[in-house]
Amino acid sequence: MTREQLRKAEGFAALLLSTLAAFLGLFWLVFILGDVLVHGIKALNLSLFVNDPVPPGVEGGGLRNAFVGQLLITVGATLMGVPVGVLGGTFLAEYARGRKIARFISILADIMVSVPSIVIGTFIYASLVKPIGHFNGWAGAIALSIIMIPVVLRTTEDMLSLVPWTLREAAFALGAPYYQVITKVVYRGAATGILTGILLSIARVAGETAPLLFTSFNNSFFSVNMGQPIASLTVTIFQYAMGPYENWHEQAWAAAFVITIFILLLTITGRIIIKWRYK
Amino acid sequence: MATTSKKNPVDTIFSFVTGAASFTVIVLIIAILYELVHESAPAIARFGIWKFLSSTDWNPVKESFGALTNIYGTILTTVLSLLMAIPVAIGIAVFVTEISPNFLKGPIGVAIELLAAIPSIIYGMWGLFTLSPIMSGYVEPFLKAIFEDVPVVGILFQGTPMGIDILTASIILSIMIIPFTASISRDSFNLTPAVVKESAYALGTTRWEVVRDIVIPYSKLGVFGGVVLSLGRALGETMAVAFVLGNNHRITTSLFDAAATITVTLANEFAEADNDIYLSSLFYLALVLFVMSFITLAIAKFFLLKAERKYSR
Q1: Residue B55 distance to chain A (closest CA, Å)
Q2: For B164-195, what is each residue's pLDDT tens digit?
Q3: Domains of chain B, CATH where assigned
Q4: B23: burial class by Cβ within 10 Å (0-12, 13-18, 19+)?
Q5: Tens digits of per-residue pLDDT, B45-55?
Q6: What is the pTM of this model?
Q7: CA distance linking residue A118 with residue A234, whole number of Å
Q8: How far is CA A177 from CA A55, A168, A171, in A?
Q9: CATH 3.10.20.310: does it fit domain A50-277?
Q10: Mutate which of A15, A156, A160, A181 to test chain B, going by most B C-beta atoms within 10 A?
Q11: Contact between chains at A123 and B31 (C-beta distance less than 8 A)
């Protein structure tokens, strides 16, 4: 082989390998999603949503308690995490713009985003479960809100930074104080982006399991009392999938199906909004 | 540059409220560190630092605890998963930036993002019910047949392939971290100035030579940052490995052995710890994990910032 042919062959092999890598990624996605869809649809039925769990061995039963519990915990986390995140991001992008402290907090928040969520679970156990004496739903919601805060904060900061500075100057020139400039001009310009960030952060925490294991724990009975242990879909999936009963496994697949579809829909909606707004 | 007029009282209040909200990040990190140190104090007093980190004991009955088996499992699964994920992730980045026709770029990008959005518990459950039987039924016996009698390498393939082991857990972990590495690598690759690449093409280089000699050297800081970020993520991943790693507190050498990571031990034992020193030791483990991942993530952030500065110049 001549040198030229060798170079061509090497190039061909390398590019072929990276094409294969891309298809391997696709393959895993299709494999995992397909598996969840096939198993999930088979196990899906109405009683899953309207009935509470029955003792193992008894036919029927559902996961109404887990759906409701999951909803309460996620909504609670959103109500606590989003305001703190949005306001914090506002400070970094507006009042502290360009200052060292803004940069420092921004870097810390980036690190916080990837801190193991199970560590946050142990932290909440130490500060909100042990002193109270029992697992409770609020602890779970707060654990999830701690995961949300840095995500929302960073997105808000980025989105506010995208709003042109001249827009603010125009508002200043009209004599508006800074807080009015922020709430009436900057927030409007960045609303879509911030909303998308919130959607994606909800998608992120809705699938979290580890921080709930020893905060909200689990509850086999229907409960809307956030002061007591409360069921969640993810912890139920963990318990049911690891359990020995066949109908537990089926219900775990059904729950996995519902939660995956929910998260993927949120993620795709978020992406579509970003594409449509910031192309 | 922001100039805050302090004359308006509402403005002062608003700046304080937003400031307080942003400081929650600092407060939370300090609070986490404080609580973990506070709760693990009894275990730190009893086992010390070096002794705890180097002891392979994990015996709730005798109340003797050491972290080494957990740290070993954590590092082993993380390193194995990185070894499997990095080539694939970089391959994906090369495909998306250099090879793919435009109509495929979008869908593959979306697919990679969806892979990142799937919650870890789904990975874990899929691993337990679908991947693990495939591993124990086909893949692992096949690997065993080939490598068992090879000197040195054979150590990795001893024992009965059960599917609930280090290899299966590492594969799941690698699938989970591919998206992180791939998307950061892709973004770094995209920052290579087109002029530089075009000059190389003008000299008659092949497409692969441009990637190898221009794009990768140019973006290595960013790619490295992405790899370290994935490392930090893999260290703390819990649910994806909790299903398929067993919970075996021993130092094992075979890929077909069950093991324990810090996260898996916490997930399995935290709610059941029945005495104070046991619980305290678990907090100690959480503290070790927090410090490990925080340092790793800080290093990743350092390299990513350095890369950002280099490219914006």
Answers
A1: 22
A2: 999 999 999 999 999 989 999 998 998 888 89
A3: 47-312 (1.10.3720.10)
A4: middle
A5: 999 999 999 99
A6: 0.93
A7: 14
A8: 62, 10, 9
A9: no
A10: A15
A11: yes
